[in-house]
Amino acid sequence: AILTCRGFQRVQRSSYHILSGNYVCSTPRSEVIELIQKGSFIGSRSRLFSSDSGDLVDAVVPFMGESITDGTLAKFLKQPGDRVEIDEPIAQIETDKVTIDVASPQAGVIQKLIAKEGETVEPGAKIAVISKSGEGVAQAAPAEKAAAQPPPAEEKPSVEKQTPESEAAPAVKDKTPSEPPPTAKKPTSPSKPMASEPQLPPKDRERRVPMTRLRKRVATRLKDSQNTFALLTTFNEVDMTNLMKLRSDYKDAFLEKHGVKLGLMSGFVKAAVSALQHQPVVNAVIDGDDIIYRDYIDISFAVGTKKGLVVPVIRNSERMNFAEIEKEISTLAKKANDGSISIDEMAGGTFTISNGGVYGSLLSTPIINPPQSAILGMHSIVNRPMVVGGNVVPRPMMYIALTYDHRLIDGREAVFFLRRIKDIVEDPRRLLLDI
């Protein structure tokens, strides 16, 4: 291949690097490199393509993010002999944060699987070989079946050989009928002391399942949070009457105009934004011997999925209205549940809201999501007798909790923060008047 500096050249089965102004050809590998020079700028782009055989394509693990160096091959979505189209997922890689699909670089037939499920793989590792024409796949399948059939045929004679031996064993035991009675009496004597020992369930009633990488990551981060932060939780209760009435009065008009349902979560997000603006230290974080104050508010909200807990982030929530917040929550929650959420959509976050009330939690002490400094816990709404205007009346009440890092946030700021949440939720008109 000839490379010039006047345009670009496409090179197959080779890669070129620029070292001290010279072009150096490295060993062949399955990539296409495009070098583009405009003035002093040279860009590169790579894409997988056929190997030296011309028909076979290697499916490799894609780049998984700057902070992710490896992942676990969770499962193969395709097996040898299956037809795949270009960019069709053939396997899933489970990382510490998200599940990533490995897409087929070419249309063809899966010839063989190189990696195994449960293995740890790195970006660029080969996991499968795809035949564009399908040659060799049809021949390999009968060979595998033929190789799989002989073992049962070989096992039958071994079973037949063992059967006479097992039948002959009782004949030997029958020759000594006088020995069983003394052996039968021996275990009866220690039966009384053994009755006091704990009876453990049999092992066949237990299941051992490896932890997923996401669960390992959650466990590590939460334990680090417990070991690092000076965790303290303060509580308050909120009368949900006015916020629930606001939602009931305008939910139909809100849905008709904005195309999304009006929930309670957007009210708490707006209340949290107001509280963080009044108490900026809650939005700050400790970095070594310094305190970093953030002039932006990215609200994280916890979403429980089948694979584990994920925390998407609502970016610049201080600039959003109720409709924009509800749309963002709906979109991110849907992505989290179907496993299509990206790492960028979960990175960062300055403050977290966890709504355990959707599961029926009455009260809890949430744990901080590092490197944040506080987390707000919402709980279930319960009608309780409250004194209003000198009369005892039923009111929909919710307990709220704020867990904070006491190294940075004093109790005064934490209580004021939670009181601001209470004031906004109980009287949403304060948001309009900014009081």
TrEMBL record:
Protein name per the record: dihydrolipoyllysine-residue succinyltransferase
Keyword annotations of the record: Acyltransferase, Lipoyl, Mitochondrion, Transferase, Transit peptide, Tricarboxylic acid cycle
Subunit and partners: Forms a 24-polypeptide structural core with octahedral symmetry.
UniProt pathway annotation: Amino-acid degradation; L-lysine degradation via saccharopine pathway; glutaryl-CoA from L-lysine: step 6/6
Organism this protein belongs to: Citrus clementina (Clementine)
EC number: 2.3.1.61
Biased composition (Basic and acidic residues): 153-164
GO cellular component, one term: mitochondrion
Cross-referenced NCBIfam families: sucB
